[in-house]
Amino acid sequence: MEIIELINRYGDLFYGVVAVWTFLEGETIVIFSGIAARQGALDLMTLISCAWIGSFLGDQMYFMLGRHAGTRMLNRYPRWRPGVDKALGLLEKYSTAFILSFRFVYGVRNFSSFAMGMSTLSWRRFALLNFFAAGIWAVCFAGAGYAAGAALQQVAGELATTVSVGLLCLFILVGGLLGLRSWRRKRAVAAPALIATVKEEALALSGDERRP
Description:
- Helices cover 85% and strands 0% of the residues.
- The protein is an all-alpha fold.
- The chain has one domain.
- The N and C termini lie far apart (99 Å).
- Residues 155-165 and 208-212 have low confidence and may be disordered.
């Protein structure tokens, strides 16, 4: 997914895309948007706010689905039952801690709000805790993307320096090899002429020595 391309296409409307995406889906777009925020393409606080609102409203909707149509939907989609039962077990065991952290619990993440709607948990209590949980989630994943963007920039900077040094060394090496090759060629051309000259001088010297 090309986040920068989406940002360029939609401008400020991209924040609405984030809100809708987090209403329906998970953290992928928030992480990559955090990286884009580090690059200056997005405002980090606005990004966090939109992800916060989208995630909060999405889970409120799933909670209401579980509250008003949970049994009917489970009868229609029985494959959901293991995930729902696991989420309800965690809710019973950990209560508030589970409501605050279920977004980070993979395997039951997609069933948790729906399952809690089928429990005796009050809508008001869930809404309050879900609001704080959505904020924690948005800050964590947008912040993780932002930090990853900083790390990528640092790595890119170090990589650029390494590449520059490497290219310089390669340039010196190639230049040296070409120079050596040129010198060898000149020596190969000059050697026969030098040998011929030496022979002529030797013959001339030998002739002079034979004269009385």
